Amino acid sequence: MLGCTMKTGIHPQYSEIQVTCSCGNTFVTRSTVNKPLHVEVCSACHPFYTGKQKIVDTAGRVEKFRQRYARKTNAAGGRGDVPIPSKGSFGCLFALL
Q: With contact defined as beta carbons under 8 Å apart, do 63 and 57 qualify?
């Protein structure tokens, strides 16, 4: 088995290609596509690798969410004055109901 070789003529062409990201970053990799690739996200701009979070706010959706779920006090004694539990606290959630 030490002298075995791969069969010829059945494997795709594996060559170097140029990859271009939408952020402008370019790099060379190997692929069977054999033509340049254009990608939307790469390791230079992806939040997982950069540690930066990009919020794309389309039509003010983030602001609408923050306004809707903002902590409000209700003069009629409604549920608006209930404190919101902090992130990571798993206290009794039924107390909020």
A: yes
Residue 39 CB coordination number (10 Å): 12
Burial (0-12, 13-18, 19+ Cβ within 10 Å), 71: exposed
23-53 confidence digits (pLDDT tens): 899 999 999 988 999 988 888 887 776 777 6
The candidate with the shortest Cα–Cα distance to 72, out of 88, 61, 60, 83, is 83
pTM for this prediction: 0.44
3-class SS shares of the chain: helix, strand, coil, % to 5: 20, 15, 65
Secondary structure letter of residue 83 according to DSSP: P
**How far is Cα of residue 7 from the mean position of the Cα atoms in its chain?**
41
Tell me which amino acid residue 75 is.
A
